[in-house]
């Protein structure tokens, strides 16, 4: 398989499936397309019909785009890994919070973009963003309380991968967070697959 991604320091959607594949030790070829270049759009359109990254190209040459669709495809192909919880109720909950991340939190995305190599505490904290953050914290607290942690549904899975870029934003902008959220963020940041992504972002910025 080949995963086509954007720049690691700011392509939050690319981060999600990349971290998922890395964490579960699934082999793939990484193809990075620099964003914001004159030929970016044409290069992406060669592989992704949406004109956006990430895009997974299967061994058969089929394209799967959008992070959540890629995650679902990986989960189907590697059922030996519990990327979604095995329990049906927990699985439905995980899918719900993942879809909410995929479709929501527009104010957070706009005002606190993922910029891994930047440190800007306090920037972008509009009332709308703070409301987004409060909702995210409520999701994390509920999931962790139900599962017992250390990740949202016990072991690391798709839901955690979906929220990993949010942790990167919190690391950059340092909004006031609960102890539960701070500890969860530390566990995500320290995860080897996430640490590898961060290292890649820092190397590219040098």
TrEMBL record:
The keyword Transferase applies. One of its GO terms (cellular component) is cytoplasm. InterPro entries: Glutathione-S-Trfase_C_sf, Glutathione_S-Trfase, Glutathione_S-Trfase_N, GST_Omega/HSP26, Thioredoxin-like_sf. Pfam families: GST_C_2 (PF13410), GST_N_2 (PF13409). Keywords: Transferase. Gene3D superfamilies: 1.20.1050.10, Glutaredoxin. Residues 1-82 form the GST N-terminal domain. GO terms for molecular function: transferase activity. The keyword DNA-binding does not apply. This is Glutathione S-transferase domain-containing protein. It comes from Caballeronia cordobensis (Burkholderia cordobensis).
